[in-house]
Model the fold of this input.
Amino acid sequence: MNFFPLLFIVLCSLSMLTGCNMAAPAPQKTSLELQAIQAREFETDKKTAFNSTMSVFQDLGYIVNSASYETGFITAQSPVKTGADLWGMHVPDGIMKSTKATAFVEEIRPGHAKVRLNFVNMVEQTQNEGQRIVEDTAVEQPEAYQNAFTKIQEAIFIRSATK
Done:
């Protein structure tokens, strides 16, 4: 009796089962961990922090959808990228990518303002018969926020030096 075909089938089955193990999802950050990444305090008044944040959004290519100095809330969105523009490589037609951004600017004490940013990547795909699939993914990488905060600090410095 030839056991090799049976052994081959058993080994292939085992390798398929072990290959299907999915990696555990990354643990979700707590609200305090997110706030540590998304918020910074600046030694400036609310007006300067608000105007600097608006300016940085525009410098980064975002289109400001709404802004209210009274509430300190700003909403913006990056231009939509499609097709070959998406991440610099060719993708099927019907896929669009953009990033939504919000900022909340508040005075925490005289001469000190806090800015909290939130970035969300959006990928939208239109399929046959107009069906839309939208996937929103919160940006949790500290580097994205650090880059924006560095630019806000620079804008605050320039605005403060010209007063």
